[in-house]
Amino acid sequence: MKIGIDAGGTLIKVAYLEGGSRKFEKWPSVEIDRLIEKLKREHAADQIFLTGGKAEYMAEKLENTAGTSIEFDATYRGLKILMEEQGIALDHFVYLNVGTGTSFHHASPEGQERVGGSGVGGGTLIGLAKLLVDMDDYEEIIRLAEKGNRDEIDLKVHHIYAGRPTPIPGDLTASNFGNVLSGDTSDMGPEDKLQAVIGLVGETVTAVGISLAEGFETNDMVFIGSTLLDNSVMKDIINRYAGLKGAKAHIIHNGEYSGALGAIL
Ligand code: ATP
Ligand code: MG
C-alpha cells in the first residue's frame, strides 16, 4: 500500500492507495502523535509519502518514509488528477487553497507558481466564530450559519448609494460587518454572525482570486481546501461573487486531499 499524507496546520489529510482503490481520511493536527503511532503499528510495511507544514516532524518520528514533497508541488500534482477525474479540463487558471490560511496560485501548461497568500482562511472562520459566538466545532458552525442572514451586518454598495445609480453592482459588499452600527441588531442571532464571518472569509479570498484571474487573463478560478467542506454558505458566496465579476468558480470535490494524493505521485 502507498500512503500519502498532507500534514497541515489544522488537519492532516491521508490518502491510502492500494491497487485500484483509494481511501481518504482526516485527522486533527493536534492528534499527530496518535496518527504516527497508528502508522508505526499498522503500516510499517507500507510506503509513506509526506507533504505539508508538519511533514518534517512526521518524517523525523516515522523511520523509513518513502519521501517528502514540497507542499505546493504535491498539491498541484494531486489537483490535476482530481480535476481530470471530475472532467474539469483547464490548462490555464488560478487556484486558491483555502486551508488554515489561504494560498493563491497560477497554473499554466508550464506548471504552477505561488502568487500570493492571505492570513484570511479557515482558521479565521473558526477563530472569529469562537470569539463572536463561543463556538469552535466546524460542523456545528457551518450548519448554524446556513440558517443565518447577514443583511443587517454587512454594508452593501446600495446602502451607501441609497437609491442612486451605483457604478458597480449594488449587491456587492462594500464593507463586511460595516453595517453593524447602522443595522437593526436587536434580533441578531449567532447564526447571522456566523454567516457574516463566512461571508468575510469567502468574499475576501474570492475577491483576491478574481483580481488574480484578471491579471493572468483567465476566467477560471479553482478552489480547494477543507474550509469548503460541506460549507454551502461559503460555496454559494464564492459562486455568486465570481458570477457578479464574470469569472467562473470550480470547487473541486475532495480538493482538500490534493496534497495527500500528490505526495504519492
Ligand atoms: P494549511 O494548509 O494552511 O497548513 P490545513 O492544510 O490544515 O492548513 P485545510 O485542512 O485545508 O488546512 O483547512 C482547514 C480548515 O478547514 C479549518 O480551519 C476549518 O475552517 C475547516 N475544517 C473543515 N473540517 C474541519 C474539521 N473537521 N475540523 C476542523 N476544521 C475543519
Ligand atoms: Mg493545507
UniProtKB/TrEMBL annotation:
EC number annotated for this UniProt entry: 2.7.1.33
Keywords: ATP-binding, Coenzyme A biosynthesis, Cytoplasm, Kinase, Nucleotide-binding, Transferase
Residues that span the membrane, as ranges: none
A single Gene Ontology CC term: cytosol
A Pfam family recorded for this sequence: Fumble
The keyword Kinase belongs to this UniProt entry's keyword annotation: yes
Family matches, as CDD domains: ASKHA_NBD_PanK-II_bac
Protein's name in the database: Type II pantothenate kinase
NCBIfam families the record matches: PRK13317.1
Broad EC category: transferase
GO annotation terms (biological process): coenzyme A biosynthetic process
UniProt GO MF annotations: ATP binding; pantothenate kinase activity
